[in-house]
Amino acid sequence: MDSHQEVLVSNVLELYEKISSFEDLNPSKDVNACLSKLVHTCLSSCHIDVSKLSERVQEKVSRLVKLCGKAEGLLEMHFSTLIGSHEYPLKNLSLFPYYSNYLKLSHLEFTLLSKACKTVPTNVAFVGSGPLPLSSIILATNHLKTTSFHNYDIDPSANAKALQLVSPDPDLSKRMFFHTTDVMNVLGGLKEHEVIFLAALVGMDWEEKVRIIQHLAAHMSPGSILLLRSAHGARAFLYPVIDPNDLQGFEVLSIFHPTDDIVNSVIMARKDQRPLCSCKGGGFNSTNLPSKCSEIQGFIPVNHGKIFEELTIDEQTS
Prior knowledge:
Blueprint: H1 3-21, H2 29-42, H3 55-84, H4 99-116, E1 123-127, H5 134-143, E2 148-153, H6 156-166, H7 172-175, E3 176-180, E4 195-198, H8 206-219, E5 225-230, E6 250-258, E7 265-271, E8 308-311, H9 313-316
Parallel strand pairs: 1-2, 1-4, 2-3, 4-5
Antiparallel strand pairs: 5-7, 6-7, 6-8
Helix pairs in contact: 1-2, 1-3, 3-6, 4-5
């Protein structure tokens, strides 16, 4: 490890000790300050492979990722309650402090999806939608304006909060549905969706994440699209990492690693080699999309810096 990596790991572990010392991780001045500092630290451009750190450090990283996931869930529950208290909740989404990041991430995912799908998908599923389903709401409002969204979450209180946000809206209330269930118990229903998003916090360790991916591979329709949120470099201190080699049963199409303030990497894959009629290469809005992925950087609104590094597997091998 070089000196920059040593400083990064030292800073992260120091913050881990502080975060793990909190009696609860509900939003508060101290919790918010500590987590914000951690996020800022993990947006470092210092390249590091967390999987190559010592076993002792990796054990702490694993615990840190779970603590961050718990804190994120509590933050979303807090702001879902706050936003839901307004007469028109969807007009107040910007109260959430990371709303702009979701706008960028959703636009990135829409751009990827536009390259893979020939027509606008009819049914999309989001697994792990949570109490504040910003991704589904932004995609449904800004990008996929006729698509039905099926949101799956294991927590009934999360779905109740999410439903409270959407119910007053005359459009989304008819296109957005919430299912309280473990996705591992969903079988034939998965075939109805042309596109499935897998949230970063669904499957908080490698074994669980792989089991979920294998379940999706077994029950998604051939040719349907899976978009997964992962992490890369120092961002792996915050979120679980998906290895493309774990996507058995899928053809990996693209991997995007952000280098600005978006935290999650995005992996897009297609279920096996038999394309579904509505999801065949070409792009459902190709007239508005650049012909090469490398040009997408200018297609996504950002305030500064390069939006992402990328590896587009299908283009590299063609």
